[in-house]
Amino acid sequence: MPVSRANILRLYKDCLVYINSLKYSDKNYLRQKVRQEFRQVVDEDYVLDADHYYEKGKAFLERRRFL
After folding, report:
1. Which of 21, 42, 47, 65 has a 20 to 30 Å separation from 33 between CA atoms?
2. Which long-range contacts (CB under 8 A, 24 or more apart) does 59-62 make?
3. Model pTM score
4. How wide is the angle at C-alpha 44 spanned by C-alphas 41 and 47, nearest 5°?
């Protein structure tokens, strides 16, 4: 099943909410990195890699860690 635009936007919002909940981090830097990742996906061939990037974002939220 292909990932819908609504799912991508929900993931983006969930990432920003998580970043805002952090206490000892540079929130501006993290927001910029998340924004950059999402823009990179849109600029590249979105249709082919949407599932991959969506799973990558979901894994990020599940682990609650930056790598």
Report:
1. 47
2. 60/15, 61/11, 61/14, 61/15, 61/18
3. 0.72
4. 80
